[in-house]
Amino acid sequence: MKPCRALLFLTTLWCSFSFATSLPAPRLNNNPQWDMVLTNPQPVLTFSLAGSDPSWVYELQMAKDAKFRQTVATYSDIRPFNQYYAQMRIPARDALSDGRYYWRVRTLTPKGMSSDWVVSRFTLDVAGSRTFSGYVRAPVKQVLASSGENPNNIIDWDDQGQLTYWNSAPLGVGDKDNWIVLDMGKRTTLSRFWMLSTRSITPAPGWLVDFYWQSSDDLNQWKTIEDTRVTGNDTYRNIIDFKPVTARFFRLMINKQNALQAQINAIIPYSRGKPAIPDVPDGRYVLLVGNQMDGYTYTHLKRFVESKGYKTVLIPHYDFSLDVLRRLKHRPMAIMFSGNNADWQYLPMFEYYGEYEVMRDVDNIPMMGMCAGNEFFAMAHGISFAHWMEWFDDSIFRRYMGLPVDKVEILPQFSSDPLFDKVPNPFQAVEIHSWAVSQEFIKEHQDFAVMARSSYIQVMRNMNRPVYSTQFHPAAVVPYNQSEPIMANFLELSSRWH
User: Fold this and answer.
1) 76-135: per-residue pLDDT in tens?
2) d(CA 348, CA 31)
3) Could you tell me if 136 and 271 are in contact, meaning their C-beta atoms sit under 8 angstroms apart?
């Protein structure tokens, strides 16, 4: 064999060997995902496994910089929680302070092999998350755009998953920028914009790169708003805070995007202030907190409660707080928190802070959460206490396709609890979710007990307060739903609560 051919053969062999023995890396697509805002100094970091080999373990590092020169801590020998994911909670000795953090994970084998690092980041905001954010949504009359179609998609806040969007047209000859104008209809004071560029946590065509906001009262004279200029943007979602500005028109100037066309899925402008106090009826009523993006409930919750003879008042999650609850004409018989079918990374999660303080602090009103409302009782103590299960539990679909459907088992010590009166054990419930409460939440908050479970936590109860929550939907009206009595039982318990 000639030397050059021998070298080529050895190079090819080595490359083939390296490819064959390369180790897959985990995926950081669970909770927290890129740029999520966490609210506990000891967050739970959940990530997808690299593969199914039971001998593989994982190493995780935390740092304050993208190059990991300011490493906070290293954690080795992290083992899978199940066949889908691993999770690790930052220990008390390494409790974090508010700010931005980078974290990375790699796979390790018993033979000393390691995968490439995969990197993500999050922001910690404990101080700001303890009470209502102080921001209220400011309604927009209409949207104007430099080009493109359907600019009103930018403010269709009832689009639960923010699936629709505006695309600019490619710049024409002589054009310098794309722009969006929000017409508020009247002079309005704003101090925050929440912006979603795309529904992708990794760089996707249309991400805004360089942009800033301006204000005007006549669409002719524009003034740049200080503190809104962003350059080198590397994220899909931005929270832009600035000193209050009063004007009728606000213009987003897009100097650069990472593709031929700019894309915006949603923009919500905010004013500083307090929500209006809703009017409530005389007598007993149930306060429903709508957790959908537009502030409404999910499935048949309102109809179910009213079918049992109770009046209801619906309040959007973004207009709810402990202060609002205390200022009601008289308190409700019960508070019920609805589900949500959106992805948390694409929502302004600070809008839920007021709801969270109610969940943490109220001890004299019966409360119940369903689906997302269940997860929120955990997230109220730290957003990372809930996580993606990495599979979608849709009992309606599975039954339709003739697939097996897991049942919910009531734990023995709670089988005689009044909440489960007339409920078979085990029972079939309506599941429409892909997230669940982490066991790490129960470890820390032992005032919460798991009352029922399937392969994950299904029902929780606070042992010191009249608080219950279910991952499934007891209010869903379908023939096979055996959990319907749970909702009726909760309403009956609430009616007798003093």
Assistant:
1) 999 999 999 999 999 999 999 999 999 999 999 999 999 999 999 999 999 999 999 999
2) 15
3) yes
